[in-house]
Amino acid sequence: MSILKVTNLCKKIGKKEILKNVSFTIEEGDILGFIGANGAGKTTTIKCVLGLQKMNSGSISINGYDIKKDFVKAIKQVGAIVESPDVYQYLSGMENLEMQASFYKNITDDDIMRIVKLVGLEKRIYDKVSKYSLGMKERLGIAISLINNPNLLILDEPTNGLDPEGIKDLRELLLKLAQKGTGILISSHNLSELESFCNKVCIIQNGEIITNKSIKEIKTTTNNKYLIKVDNDKKALSLISDANLNNNHLELIADEDQIAALIKLLVNNNIKIYEVTKEKLTLEEAFISIAGGHKID
Predict the structure, then answer these.
(1) 61 near 67, Cβ under 8 Å?
(2) In this structure, what DSSP letter does residue 259 have?
(3) Count of beta carbons in the 10 Å neighbourhood of residue 1
């Protein structure tokens, strides 16, 4: 059974279609990177999943419960941070966690300390949140989202403002949670980081899912990057408009048939070819290729 199943989700605001038949699933241990440019529909989708916005049509089930029919049961095992952690600056980290724990039944002090250790805040948990760094506040926010022992964790832009060490800590934490069977939906602009820990990617553009595959599939089925070393860079660039110059190599994204045709073109124009190297695309390069040249803002 899928932890999260979104099927043909549609959302309109006035006459404008914000989401158009959005569908994807998250299984146990999945870390799904939900990516798209600003305004593509990421946060709206997340808010619909959490019941913060109403959908016009489609269905969403969490742990087998339809959020329209059994919202309380569906949301029971969900933890989430949407846009920024909601914490009280004048309270300590522990006081924030204890306040959150009071909303649930049977959350013990041992349960809270287990989560504190999991997110690595043992040394500062009794300090006021106003003294926390941005990365520490993010870790506290994740601790709060874990207080009800969820098996589905939803994070909207959790790496915003984090330094490299904070991002590394977040990556290790999410991988640890996934190994324990937690399903994770993470929306982020930081594609290089998503590539390092997500096993699935869902790309949304103008409210529509344009691809939904594993990281491995998305990087191998998309056109690859080629580096071509020639004797006359300027002449070659004048013939191949899509190429860039990178360390004395022509760099372009193409498929094998296109590369074969380009090599023939270069040879016919008396340009010597010294080397042709094929490289796999990064997630960001694959996204740009799939999204028709659109970058994430």
Answers:
(1) yes
(2) H
(3) 8
What is the Cα 138 distance to its own chain's centre? 16
- State the Cα–Cα distance between residues 107 and 100, nearest whole angstrom: 10
Burial (CB count <10 Å: 0-12, 13-18, 19+), residue 134: middle
| Residue showing tokens 């016009």 | 56
- The C-alpha torsion from 279 through 172 and 43 to 145, rounded to 10°, is 170
Residue 254 tokens, joined = 């193409």
137 sits in which H/E element: helix 134-145
- pLDDT means over runs of 10, the chain (297 residues): 93 91 96 90 94 94 95 92 81 94 88 90 93 85 90 86 76 89 89 85 92 82 80 86 82 85 91 86 77 58
Q: What is the pLDDT of residue 74?
A: 94
Residues 6+ apart with CB under 8 A from 67: 49, 51, 60, 61, 74, 75
Neighbours of 246 (CB within 10 A): 11
Q: Are 271 and 235 in contact (CB under 8 A)?
A: yes
Give the predicted TM-score (pTM) of the model: 0.80
Q: How far apart are the first and last CA of the chain?
A: 35
Token pair listed for 241: 């408009």
pLDDT at 122: 92
Q: Which residues contact 73 (CB under 8 A, 6 or more apart)?
A: 63, 65
